[in-house]
Amino acid sequence: MKNGTVDLHIKDGRQEAEKVRTPFLEFWRKFKKQRIAMIAAFFIGFLFIVALLGPFIAPYSAVEPDYENILSSPSMQHLAGTDAFGRDIFSRIIEGTRISLFVGLSSVFFSAVLGTILGLVSGYYGGWLDNMIMRICDVLFAFPGILLAIGIIAILGPGLGNVVIAVAIFGIPTFARIVRSSTLSIKETLYVESARSVGASAKRIIFKHIFPSTLSSIIVYFTMRIGTAILTAASLSFLGLGAQPPSPEWGAMLSAGRDFLNTAPHVTFFPGLSIFITVLAFNLLGDGLRDALDPKMKD
Amino acid sequence: MTELLLEVKNLKKHFPVNKGLFGQKKSFVRAVDGVSLTIEKGETLGLVGESGCGKSTTGRMITRLLAPTEGEILFDGRDLSKLNDKQIREARKELQMIFQDPYASLNPRMTIGETIAEPLIVHNMMNKKDRIKKVHELLECVGLTSYHANRYPHEFSGGQRQRIGIARALAVNPKLIVADEPVSALDVSIQSQVLNLMQDLQEEFGLTYLFISHDLSVVEHISDRVGVMYLGKLVEIARKETLYENPKHPYTKALMSAVPIANPRVKKERIVLQGDIPSPSNPPTGCTFHPRCNACMEICKTEVPLLKETSPGHFSACHLY
Amino acid sequence: MSNRLLEISNLKTYFFVDNQQIPAVNGVDLFINEGETLGIVGESGCGKSVTSLSIMGLLGHTPGKVVDGSIRFKDSDLLTLPEDKMRKIRGNEIAMIFQEPMTSLNPVYKIGQQIGEAVRLHLKYDKKKTREHVINMLKLVGIPRAEEIIDEFPHQLSGGMRQRVMIAMAMSCNPTLLIADEPTTALDVTIQAQILEIMKKVKQEKGTAMMLITHDLGVVAEMCDRIVVMYAGKVVEEADVFELFENPKHPYTKGLLNSVPKLGLKSERLTSIPGNVPTPANMPKGCKFAPRCIEVMEICKTEDPELSQISNGHQCRCFLYEDEFVKEAK
Predict the structure, then answer these.
(1) Using the beta-carbon criterion (under 8 Å), do B143 and A191 form an inter-chain contact?
(2) How far is CA C137 from CA B93, B152, C121, C127, C131, in A?
C-alpha cells in the first residue's frame, strides 16, 4: 500500500474552478460560432412570436373583404398591398404564419415520433420485423413525395388536417431509416455492450443509451424537414387540396393570386417570398445544427 | 480454502460463416474450441494468447455477452449457459466486466455518476440518496473524487476512464470480474497505476479476477495462475511461478522467449516461430500448433493432444508429455 | 566517431486548432549518427510521432506547423528545402514505416506496384529491373514465395506480412535513414519477434541509420544504441542504451523503467508514476513533469530546467543534477 497511496489520490488542482462541460454547452459553443445559422435561429424565433401573436399584431383583419381597396399596390396603408377582395396581404401573411408553422411542426413531429420508434425497433431487434418495416419504407420511398401526399389526400379528402396527415406519412420512412442506421451502429458500440454486461434490459438500453445517441441526427433532420413540410403543405394548398379559401394559408394565397400575375404581381410575390425565406431559414438552421451536433451526417 | 467459484467445462463457440451466394454452405469459425478451466475464490486467473486465440470470446461467454455453442459454465453452483435472458441479467449482479477501450466503453452522453450508478439502477438496489452516496464512495475508492460525479467522460484521460469502468464494475459487489485487456490501451506509466489499483481492490473486497491480456509480463505480475490459449484451445495452464519458470508447451516457450526484455545486457536465445497464426475457420489437423512447432512429431499431425496434468497443478496439451 | 546524419535543434511544432496553439513539440534537440539506431521513447502525446512527421515534412494535412528550429540532414536544412527537393529525399534518402500496416498500404494496387513505384521514381530503374529489385527486397524481409506475393493485393496478406512489405518498401531505395514509428505495436508478440529480427538483419546488411519510435522499453533495449526519452514535447533525457537502463537520472525515466512489469521478476507491487500525462490545456508552468515527480523541489514548480550534460553522452533535463552538470559548451 505504500506506493498505492500516492496514485489513489490524484491531485487535480484545477477541478474546483472549472464548470462542468455538459454536451449541451459543448453544442452551444460550436453553434454560437455559426453566424448564418444564428441569424436563421433568430428569424425562426421571430416567426414563432408572430405566429403566437398573429391577430393581435396584424393591422387589418385577414378575412374581412374591403371592396374599396381591391388589388391596390403596396403603400403606407397596406405595406404589401391588397388582394382581389381588398384584404390586406401583410395581415394575411402574418396570420398565415401560424398555419404554416403549425402544419410544418405538427406533421414533422408525427413523422419523427413514429419514424423514430419504428427505426429503433427495427434497428435493435432486426430479423423479420426489421425486414418488414424496411420493405414498407421502400414502398413509400418509391412514390415521389408530393404524389404520395396527393394520393393520401385523394383518399382522405382535402383540408388542412389531412394535409398534416399526408405530409406526416411521407416523412416517416426517412426518419425510420436515419434512426435505424444510427441504431445499428450504436448497438455495436462498447458502451452498449458494457451496459448489457451490468445487466441492463433491452428497454433500458434502447431508451437510455441508444435513443439519446440518435437524438442529434433526429434534431438535425427534424429541422431540415420542417422546411420541406411547409413547402409541401403550401404546394398542396396551391393545388387546392389543402387549406381552403378564405384561409390565409400562404400556398392558397399564391393560388388565388395567380390570375393577377400580370396586373398585380404583389398578390403572389409577398406570400411567395414568405415561403421562400421561411423554408430557407429552417434549412440554414438545420445546416448549422448539423455542423454543431453531428458533423458526420452530410447528405 | 480452495473453494471453486467458476468452473468452465468444454466451452465452445463456433461462429457460422455463410458461403456461397445464398448462404447454403455453412462453415464455422471455431473461435473457442473446447476450453475447460476453473477459478477459485479470491484468485486471479490470467488468460494470455495472441490475437484470434479466443481469449476475449471466452471472457464474453463467461459473462454471457455471447451465448456458448456448447459447454457448461458453472458459476457458484449454477450453470450460466442454461439461463434465459432475464436470469442472465439477474446473474450479472455477481459477474461484472471491465473492457479494453476506456474511450468507447463509457456512454459519452451520460455523466460519470449516472454511468457508475447504472448497475445499481438496473438491479433495483438502493434508493436515490443511497445511490449517490455509493457512487461517491466508489469514486473515492478508485482514486477519483466525488467531485467528478457530474462530469462527462470526454473530460477524463484514458487512465481515469479505466478507473471509472472499475468503479462501475464494483458497484454491485460482484463475486467475479472479467477484465478484458484492461490496461492494453493505456500508457505505460498509467498501466501500473491501474494494475496496482486492481490489486488493492482485490485485497479490500476479496474479488476474483479473470484477467485477459496479450501482455505476458502484465499477466505474470497480476495473476496467481495463468492459462495460455492458442487457436481456440487452452494449451497450458499452471500456477504462474511454475508456468513462467518451467513452461512445457512449445508454444508457451516460444511466446515467452518472444517478449523483448527491458535490459540491454540480456542477450536471450529467442525461439522465432515461423509463419503466421492459422485462421480459426480452417485450423490445422491434429495439434493446431504443429505447423509452427519446432518439436513436431508424426503423431501431432493427426491426433489432437488433450490437456494433461504433467506435474501437480500444471496442465499442458502436448504429445511430448 | 561517426558522422552526424541528422541533427535537429530546437524544433518546435505547434498545432493550430480552434484559434488555440498547442505545442506538440516544444524545443527538441537530437541527432542521429550514420548507421546508428536511435530510440525515441515516450508516452502518447509526448510529441514523438510529431517529431518524425516534422522530419519527413508530412505535416501538410494536419493542422500542425513547424514554427521554429532546424532539421539538418547531411548538408541541407529540411525545413527550408523546396517541396520538389524534399520529395527526392522522402522515400529515397529517408524512408518511414508506420504503425498500422493495415491502412498504410493502398488496397487497390498490387504489392509489386506499390513497392515498384518508389523504385522507378527514385532509382530510375526500368520495368524488368524494378521487378527483380522488388523480389529481392521481398526476399530480404523474409517473405516466402516472393515471386507470387509480388502480384498479390494487400488484403491477401496477414498483418505481419504487411508489415514486412512496409519494411521492404521503405528499404527499397536504400535509404540512409529509416524512421520507424511504433512498427510492431499493432502486432502479436511472436510476429513482433519476427519483425524485430528482420529489422536487425536489414539494418546490418545495409548499414542504415534508424530512428525507432516506441513506448515499449523492451523493444528499445533490444534494438537501440542510444535512447532519447521525451515528455510533454521535450527531450528529458538522452544516453546510450546501457547507461540509460543502468543509470537513469531523470525521475520520469526512473519511474517509467520501474512501472513496467518485467518478465520473470517477481514483484508484489509496481512502482507507478502518480497522476496523468498533462494535456496541452493544463500544461504545468515550470518543469512539465513537476506535478507527477516524487523528487519535486520548489524551483521545479516555477522554472523549466535546461537539457544539460551529466557525463559524456548523457544528458538530462532536471534540477536535481545542477551540481553534476558538466560546465562546458555543448
Answers:
(1) no
(2) 56, 50, 16, 15, 10
Contacts of C221 in chain B (CB under 8 A): 260-264, 266
Q: Is residue B252 less than 8 Å (CB to CB) from chain C?
A: no
Contact in structure between C317 and C251 (CB atoms under 8 Å)? no
A61 part of a folded domain: no
Residue A84 is assigned to a structural domain of this protein = yes
Taking each helix axis as running N to C, give the angle between helix A127-142 and helix A89-125, from 0 to 180 degrees, rounded to the nearest 10: 150
Q: Which residue has the cell 401583410?
A: A90
Asked if residue A215 is part of any domain, the answer here is: yes
Which chain C residues contact residue B218 at CB under 8 A? 261
How many interchain CB pairs under 8 A, A with B? 88
A299 located within any domain: no
- The overall longest dimension of chain A from CA atoms, in Å, is 97
* Inter-chain touch B193–C273, beta carbons under 8 Å: yes
Strand partners, C229: C41, C237
SS3 breakdown of chain C: % helix, strand, coil, rounded to 5?
Answer: 35, 25, 40
Residue-number span of the structural domain to which A215 is assigned: 34-53+73-293
Query: Which SS3 state, helix, strand or coil, does residue C221 take?
Result: helix
Does ipTM top 0.90? no
Contact status, residue A256 vs residue A84, Cβ threshold 8 Å: yes
Contact status, residue B88 vs residue B80, Cβ threshold 8 Å? yes
A295 touching B (Cβ < 8 Å) = no
What's the structural domain count of chain A?
1
Give yes or no for C259 touching A (CB within 8 A): no
Say if B131 is an interface residue toward chain A (CB within 8 Å).
no
Q: Hey, are the CB atoms on B221 and C158 less than 8 Å from each other?
A: no
Q: Which CATH number belongs to the domain containing residue A285 in this structure?
A: 1.10.3720.10
Which residues of C fall within a CB distance of 8 Å from B193? 272-274
Distance in angstroms (rounded) separating the CA atoms of residues A85 and A92: 12
How far apart (Å, rounded) are the C-alpha atoms in residues C230 and A61?
77
Note whether B250 contacts C: Cβ–Cβ < 8 A: no
Best A12, A26, A191 residue to mutate vs chain B (most B CBs within 10 Å): A191
Per-residue pLDDT in tens (0 to 9) along chain B, 321 residues: 578 899 999 999 988 876 655 555 667 888 898 899 999 999 999 999 888 888 999 999 999 998 899 999 999 888 998 888 889 988 888 999 999 888 888 998 899 999 999 999 999 888 899 999 999 999 988 888 888 888 888 888 888 999 999 999 999 889 999 999 998 888 888 888 899 999 999 999 999 999 999 999 899 999 999 999 998 999 999 999 899 888 999 999 998 888 888 888 877 677 878 777 787 778 888 898 988 888 888 888 888 898 888 888 899 999 887
Q: How far apart are CA C191 and CA C184, in angstroms?
A: 8
Contact residues on chain A for C277, CB-CB shorter than 8 A: none
Number of H helices, E strands in chain B: 9, 12
CA distances to B159, B228, B302, C82 from B284, in Å: 40, 18, 9, 55
Structure-block grid coordinates of residue B94: 455477481
The pTM score is 0.83
CA gap A101, A77 in Å, rounded: 27
Contacts of B155 in chain A (CB under 8 A): 21
Distance from CA of A217 to the nearest CA of B (A): 14
